[in-house]
Design brief:
It is built from ten helices and 13 strands. By secondary structure, the chain is an alpha/beta fold. The strands form four sheets. A five-stranded mixed β-sheet has the order 1-7-6-4-5, with helices on both faces. Strand 4, helix 4 (92-100) and strand 5 (106-110) form a beta-alpha-beta unit. Helix 3 crosses helix 4 (92-100) and helix 7 runs parallel beside helix 8. The radius of gyration is 19 Å and the shape is globular. Bound molecules: oxa(dethia)-CoA (UT7). Residues 30, 34, 38-39, 114, 155-156, 159, 196, 223, 225-226, 228-229, 232, 260, 262-263, 266, 290, 321 line the site of oxa(dethia)-CoA (UT7).
């Protein structure tokens, strides 16, 4: 039987600049009250100009390496997930590889937005299980603040998103003790792609980048909030149920559920739907907003660092976002 993958180290990094709801009140027609009531967010972090998602990813990677107590030269593959790469191409995987000075290894970019971490985890897990790689660095990172529509027209989306990064190290579990990633389950429905997307730049346009870039709203992320909300509260519980059933577990076996931090109202509805006590649910959106691919691993790292996870605990992850994509994973810690 193949060896399961275990997470041997985690780390996260958020830029120091704190942007509260009160700061946003000054930029657009919104209020602290509205943002807190509708999303549970109090503040988020913004990266300074000149800092890209690969920079945050690199900082998170250093912390995860230290946590796993391995030297960076031991990493044999990188999987990176972001919707906000430093450049249109290449992705940030190669940039993290270069920053770490690991020019001999491969790096793969996964583009599945809010579900990106679980999709990336799934990919990395297959490599470990099949014995292809022994120490994979998985990074998820976003700098979204540089491309949000801060006008009243974009306020529904702009108030939700923040910047941040997290990384995990995956290795084969040398012991046959059942610990590790038990399964991952990935779903999508591309018919809903335009409900949460950044329409441009598009290779369909000739030229892809028009001269009057700043005037085109298509270059900002756009979202049909209600449609996303409706699907998120339905699909995340569904994905968790599929994962639990697959592993012959029930919701009572789950010690911690970490959902993608999209909106605290969504999180509470997911918990209610699954009948899991809210105390067992990882929640930090109040401090970071929605950090897309990075949201689950940031929450995971915070939970670990607070010593809230014990060996043998069952951890369920679930995400929903642009694509639409959704996913789940179950880990025996
Ligand atoms: O990671 C996955 C990606 N995103 C999500 O999961 C987000 C999913 N959607 C949501 O979280 C919610 O739909 C929002 C938080 C975006 C919006 O909450 P809502 O309860 O669905 O509000 P709404 O869109 O129905 O808007 C209610 C009102 C509207 O005004 P009227 O038409 O009632 O006069 C909006 O124009 O709130 C207004 N509004 C705002 N007001 C103040 C929208 N955005 C804002 C804002 N500040 N930032």
């Amino acid at each position: 039987m193949s060896q399961k993958s275990i997470i041997t180290g985690t780390g996260h990094f958020v830029p120091p600049k704190v942007v509260t709801n009160f700061h946003l009140e000054k930029k657009m027609n919104t209020s602290d009250k509205w943002i807190k009531q509708r999303s549970g967010i109090r503040e988020r972090r913004y990266a300074d100009p000149g800092i890209g998602s690969s920079d945050l990813a690199y900082e998170a990677a250093l912390r995860a390496l230290e946590d796993a107590q391995i030297h960076k030269s031991e990493i044999d593959f990188i999987v990176a997930s972001t919707l906000s790469p430093d450049h249109y191409f290449p992705g940030i995987g190669v940039q993290v590889q270069a920053k770490l000075g690991l020019s001999h290894i491969g790096a793969l970019d996964v583009r599945n937005q809010c579900s990106g971490f679980i999709y990336a985890l799934s990919v990395a897990d297959q490599y470990i299980r099949n014995g292809v790689y022994k120490k994979i660095l998985l990074v998820a990172s976003e700098v979204q603040s540089s491309n949000l529509d801060y006008s009243d027209e974009g306020r529904d989306l702009a108030v939700l998103f923040g910047d941040g990064a997290a990384a995990v190290i995956l290795e084969p579990n040398p012991k046959d003790d059942g610990r590790g990633i038990l399964s991952t389950h990935l779903f999508c429905d591309g018919n809903y792609a335009s409900q949460l997307w950044m329409q441009k730049p598009s290779s369909k346009d000739k030229p892809t980048f028009p001269k009057q870039l700043g005037k085109e709203k298509g270059f900002f992320p756009q979202m049909n909030g209600r449609e996303v909300f409706k699907h998120a509260v339905e699909k995340m519980p569904q994905a968790v149920r599929v994962a639990l059933e697959h592993n012959q577990l029930t919701i009572d076996d789950v010690d911690i559920l970490i959902p993608h931090q999209a909106n605290d109202r969504i999180t509470r509805m997911v918990a209610k739907n699954l009948k899991i006590p809210i105390e067992k649910v990882g929640r930090n959106i109040d401090r970071y907003g929605n950090t897309t691919a990075a949201s689950i691993p940031i929450a995971l790292d915070e939970i670990i660092k607070k010593n809230k996870l014990k060996q043998g605990n069952i951890v369920a992850l679930t995400a929903f976002g642009s694509g639409f994509t959704w996913a789940s994973a179950v880990i025996k810690w």
